[in-house]
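Renewal narrative, Specific Aim 1. Our central claim is that a sequence can be written position by position from structural information alone. The example that follows is taken directly from our test logs and has not been curated for this report. It begins with the C-alpha cells describing the chain, in the order in which they were read.
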C-alpha cells in the first residue's frame, strides 16, 4: 500500500487547539523578551508608506497596479478612494506601530489612526521623538495579540468608540511565523478585521504562503460570486523571497456582505488532504 498524502493543515479540533497553544506560547515568549528589553526574535516595524523597498507600497504594489486610481502610488490611491471620508477617516495597521505609515498621508486626512503591536516600544528613550509626533497627530498604539479575541472585544472596540476603520493594513513580515498554519484560525482573524471595516473601506493584508492553496480558490470565489459588492485582488508569494508571503486587497463596495464570505469546511478539508477540487485545482 502506498503512503497516504500528508495533511497540509491540521485536521480535527484537538490538533488545531494544540497548534494554537504552541503559537501563543511563542507569542508570550517574544512579548516577554521585548518588555524586558532583550533582543526579540524579530524587530518591531515602523515602515513608511512610500519611498523604499521596505515601504507598505512595495509590499502591496502587485494588488493595486490594475486599479485606474493607482497611478501616483499608495498614498494617492487611498486618499482618492476615501476622499469622501477626508478628515473623518479611521486607519489601523495590524502588526506594525503605524507611526511612519500614517505620517505619510496628508495632514488631517485621518481623524484618528492606530498601530497594533505586541509591545509598544516607543516608550524607550531612543523612540521618544516618535511618541511625541504620534501624540500630536492623534495616532495611538494598541498592545495586543491578533490571535486574542480580547484584543478586539475590549481594546480595539474601546478605541474605535463606535467608528469603523476605513483603512486596515497588515504587513507582519517575519511576524507571520507566529500565525498558526490553520485556515480556520486565519479565517477568524481576517473575519475580525473585515467586521470592523467600514462600507467603502479598504483592507490590505499579507498572509503566509502556506495558505496559497486556500487563498487561490477563496479569492477566486470572492471575485466570481461577490464581484458586484467586493473588489478583490490577490498575488501569490513565492518560497524563495526574503519574507515569503502572499497579499490580498479587499474593498467593500455598496451592499457588501456583513460577514466575510469564506470557503466551506468541506472544500478546506479537501485542500488540506491534497484532494482535487471540482475545478481541477489542488
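The sequence written for that structure reads:
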Amino acid at each position: 500500500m502506498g503512503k497516504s498524502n500528508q495533511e497540509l493543515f491540521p485536521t480535527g479540533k484537538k490538533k488545531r487547539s494544540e497548534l494554537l497553544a504552541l503559537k501563543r506560547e511563542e507569542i508570550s515568549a517574544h512579548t516577554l523578551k521585548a518588555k524586558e528589553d532583550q533582543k526579540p526574535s524579530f524587530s518591531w516595524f515602523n515602515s513608511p508608506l512610500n519611498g523604499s523597498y521596505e515601504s507598505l507600497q512595495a509590499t502591496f504594489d502587485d494588488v493595486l497596479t490594475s486599479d485606474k486610481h493607482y497611478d501616483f502610488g499608495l498614498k494617492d490611491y487611498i486618499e482618492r478612494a476615501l476622499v469622501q471620508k477626508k478628515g473623518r477617516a479611521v486607519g489601523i495597521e495590524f502588526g506594525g506601530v503605524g507611526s511612519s505609515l500614517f505620517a505619510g498621508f496628508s495632514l488631517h486626512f485621518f481623524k484618528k489612526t492606530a498601530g497594533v503591536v505586541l509591545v509598544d516600544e516607543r516608550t524607550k528613550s531612543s523612540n521618544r521623538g516618535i511618541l511625541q509626533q504620534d501624540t500630536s497627530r492623534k495616532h495611538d498604539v494598541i498592545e495586543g495579540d491578533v490571535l486574542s479575541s480580547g484584543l478586539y472585544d475590549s481594546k480595539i472596540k474601546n478605541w474605535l468608540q463606535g467608528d469603523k476603520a476605513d483603512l486596515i493594513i497588515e504587513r507582519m513580515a517575519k511576524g507571520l511565523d507566529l500565525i498558526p498554519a490553520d485556515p480556520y484560525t486565519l479565517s477568524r482573524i481576517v473575519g475580525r478585521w473585515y467586521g470592523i471595516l467600514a462600507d467603502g473601506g479598504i483592507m490590505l493584508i499579507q498572509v503566509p504562503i502556506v495558505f496559497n492553496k486556500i487563498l487561490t480558490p477563496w479569492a477566486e470565489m470572492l471575485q466570481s460570486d461577490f464581484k458586484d459588492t467586493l473588489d478583490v485582488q490577490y498575488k501569490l508569494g513565492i518560497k524563495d523571497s526574503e519574507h515569503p508571503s502572499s497579499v490580498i486587497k479587499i474593498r467593500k463596495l455598496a451592499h457588501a456582505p456583513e460577514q466575510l464570505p469564506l470557503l466551506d469546511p468541506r472544500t478546506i478539508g479537501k485542500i488540506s488532504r491534497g484532494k482535487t477540487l471540482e475545478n481541477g485545482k489542488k
